[in-house]
């Protein structure tokens, strides 16, 4: 297992109550000395800690990580040379500070072109067929497919990338020793065997349903910020049942981060289909969204691929860091 002293330090800092991503991004650049870290923590924590206290915390963290040695290849954190850069205009509180991975971490590098393909849990055969065509076409252009390993559209995206001899990245809401959903454990192994990547921010199981729900939201955020573009196959709009909220969140994050977005939609045949309600809503709200259907598939995919190569992100303002 690969990890640096810096990664263990960042994980240890994050374990203190009241210390989150925003605080770490504001106060740490990575590779600080233990004394500096302790001084920073003591300016923030209610209780004073000593250098010896922090070393104890570090050892506990190493022990926890080593329990995962058969499930992960490594841990990286801000300050590590191989810590991947996010895409888009992302405020500090939403930038990742530590990642656990299995597979080819270099797939997250900015030099690698990634496009997320996401959607609902229960696609019909028409959605599945055109999504497969979309993924196959992207693979022809050396694009890596990003998705969330969920059932339905996510699984279709990962499987088609593999079947097309491409690479795919699965971003998880769970630790790598507890793949969710459990029914996709075999698919997760196949992704790794085909030179892909599994990545997560977590090393332990969620302690409550509320925490797990928050982790799914964080997964949706990572799908956006590690992708050069994002394509929505199909999804319901917000409703009382909470159907497929992950797709809505990922598309919203992409909009906030200025990540190019595309949706699958046929104006002639999908007008009354609730499975395309979110697609229709996004089209009505965003004149810049790219609309993909079976008639324009090649040309519309060419547009989003070109956008991923030339997009320039605006500088963040001071308010983005608050």
Automatic annotation (TrEMBL):
GO biological process: DNA-mediated transformation
Alphabetized SUPFAM superfamilies for the sequence: MCP/YpsA-like
Annotated GO MF terms: DNA binding
Listed Gene3D superfamilies: 3.40.50.450
InterPro entries per record: DprA (IPR003488), DrpA_SLOG (IPR057666)
Pfam families, per database record: DNA_processg_A
Keyword entries, A-Z: DNA-binding
Domain of life: Bacteria
Domain called Smf/DprA SLOG: residue spans: 75-289
Residue spans crossing the bilayer: none
Recorded family membership: Belongs to the DprA/Smf family.
Protein name according to UniProt: DNA-binding protein
Lineage of origin: Bacteria, Pseudomonadati, Deferribacterota, Deferribacteres, Deferribacterales
């Amino acid at each position: 297992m690969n990890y640096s002293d810096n990664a263990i330090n960042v994980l240890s800092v994050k374990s203190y109550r009241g210390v989150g991503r925003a605080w770490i991004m504001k106060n740490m650049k990575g590779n600080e000395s233990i004394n500096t870290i302790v001084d920073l923590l003591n300016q923030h924590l209610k209780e004073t800690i000593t250098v010896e206290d922090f070393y104890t915390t570090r050892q506990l963290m190493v022990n926890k990580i080593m329990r995962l040695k058969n499930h992960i290849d490594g841990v990286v954190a801000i300050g590590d040379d191989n810590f991947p850069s996010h895409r888009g205009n992302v405020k500090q509180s939403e930038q990742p500070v530590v990642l656990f991975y299995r597979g080819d971490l270099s797939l997250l590098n900015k030099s690698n072109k990634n496009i997320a393909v996401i959607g609902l849990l229960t696609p019909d055969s028409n959605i599945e067929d055109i999504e497969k065509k979309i993924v196959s076409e992207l693979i022809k252009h050396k694009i890596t497919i990003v998705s969330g390993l969920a059932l339905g559209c996510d699984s279709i995206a990962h499987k088609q990338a593999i079947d097309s001899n491409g690479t795919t990245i699965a971003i998880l809401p769970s630790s790598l020793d507890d793949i969710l959903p459990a029914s996709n454990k075999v698919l997760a192994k196949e992704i790794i065997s085909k030179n892909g990547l599994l990545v997560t921010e977590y090393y332990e199981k969620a302690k409550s349903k509320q925490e797990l729900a928050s982790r799914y939201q964080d997964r949706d955020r990572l799908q956006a910020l590690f992708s050069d573009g994002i394509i929505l196959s199909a999804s319901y709009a917000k409703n009382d049942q909470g159907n497929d909220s992950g797709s809505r969140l990922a598309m919203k994050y992409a909009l906030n981060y200025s990540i190019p977005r595309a949706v699958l939609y046929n104006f002639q045949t999908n007008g009354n289909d609730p499975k395309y309600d979110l697609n229709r809503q996004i089209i009505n709200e965003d004149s810049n969204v790219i609309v993909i259907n079976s008639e324009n598939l090649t040309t519309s995919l060419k547009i989003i691929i070109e956008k991923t190569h030339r997009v320039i992100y605006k500088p963040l303002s001071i308010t983005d860091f608050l």
